[in-house]
Amino acid sequence: MQVTRTPADVLATLSRRYREHYGDRLVGIYAVPEFPFSDEGPEETEDDDVRAIEILVILQGPYDHFEETDPVVDIAMDVTEEYDWWTGIFARHAARDSDRAEGAECKGIVV
User: Which helix (H) or strand (E) covers residue 58, if one does?
Assistant: First the structure.
């Protein structure tokens, strides 16, 4: 019997994995529209199914953009494979004091 996974299941697992990996450095995790600084919603298919979820992982210092990219993406890919999830997950990261983090806090949904 195949178990059906919901978006909530996937987001909860992502949240747990990022918290385990980053600990106290993790400020927040937000699900945001694919284009977080525009008024457009997420990209949709012809059937009006959301094609992708963007996750923004906000970290506090020390922060090096290039060093954080692999772990953030690897965790999302592991969860995608584990859950056999068909919706794309765009995992991104930002420093706590960045414009992107501020935008996510305003327009995003806390995960």
Answer: strand 52-59
